[in-house]
Design a protein that fits this description.
With 286 residues, the protein is an alpha+beta fold. The chain has six helices and eleven strands. A hairpin with a 6-residue loop joins β7 and β8. α1 packs antiparallel against α2. The longest helix is centred in the first third of the chain and has 21 residues. The structure holds fe (ii) ion.
């Protein structure tokens, strides 16, 4: 076939995938072509605009080295990550809601003992956390693997800094009662990296790049769906305009503030500090 025009080219391209043996791949390619062509027909880009689009993607690739994940950031800021998350996590009652993984997870976080301080001495308001991991049905899950990561007091993750030091992240195991106690610092709001193409998009559209203060959790236990979520700090000014659309009300906690006194583990405290108590529920694997 020849003489393709705007009325017949979409079907012609879809036809070209007719012999794809992998039926899932065929479905994906057909839908991608149909929606991409519909987008182009809707927008009617000029050649310069289409070239700009291809260069934008090229820039996303070029800046994605080491600890930088521009395509995850693009997916996050367009709400696609949360849409994929919603489709894949239609949760049973009692299960904690999920949210974005984000670009700052490391799969080789250092293993830490109960009661350890993940701040590794970095400045910030001390936070004492006592959380528990249960099944959605309420059964305590002993030995669950809990990954925690968060930004520092200046709004950066360790992997955004030079030197490669791991801090404000760690991997723990829950105790026999499914509980985990650890020290950290109170998280603060921070901007997503906006010195690249995604940042240009944020600025050109007069959006802001901020995420409300949160701790990241990834919790895994045999027989259960791995939970990827955050806990957000109540009162943060960006809770209703998170740059990546990740906030769910059930994940917002007060992080109550104390002044001096003695921490639950017997540590004498001076000045302001915060506490976190939360019960996570894991959905069974189906
Ligand atoms: Fe984060």
């Amino acid at each position: 076939m020849r003489d393709f025009d705007e009325n017949n080219i979409t079907d012609a391209v879809i036809d070209r995938f007719a012999n794809t043996p992998d039926t899932r791949l065929k479905t994906v390619m057909n839908s991608l072509v149909r929606h991409l062509h519909a987008f182009v027909k809707d927008v009617e880009p000029t050649f310069d605009e289409w070239l700009f689009a291809t260069q934008f993607l090229k820039r996303c690739g070029h800046i994605s080295t080491g600890g930088r994940e521009e395509f995850i950031l693009l997916s996050d800021t367009l709400g696609v990550s949360m849409l994929v998350d919603a489709i894949n996590h239609r949760m049973p009652a009692g299960a904690t809601e999920t949210t974005v993984l984000g670009p700052f997870y490391l799969d080789n976080a250092q293993e830490m003992a109960q009661g350890a301080d993940i701040s590794m001495g970095h400045k910030g308001e001390p936070l004492y956390a006592d959380v528990e991991v249960r099944s959605a049905g309420g059964m305590p899950l002993a030995g669950a693997t809990v990954d925690i990561w968060q930004s520092d007091d200046d709004g950066f993750y360790d992997m955004q800094k030079e030197g490669g030091e791991q801090y404000l992240r760690g991997r723990f195991k829950t105790d026999a009662e499914g509980r985990l106690k650890f020290w950290s610092i109170a998280p603060t709001f921070y901007p997503i990296p906006f010195d690249g193409p995604v940042g240009d998009m944020i600025q050109a559209t007069k959006r802001h790049p901020y995420r409300p203060a949160h701790l990241h959790f990834m919790i895994a236990a045999p027989g259960y769906e791995t939970l990827v979520t955050h806990l957000f700090v109540a009162g943060d000014k960006y809770l209703d305009s998170d740059a990546v659309f990740g906030v769910k009300q059930s994940l917002v906690d007060e992080f109550p503030r104390r002044d001096g006194g003695t921490a639950p583990d017997g540590k004498a405290m001076t000045g302001a500090w915060r506490t976190l108590n939360y019960s996570f529920g894991l959905a069974p694997k189906d």
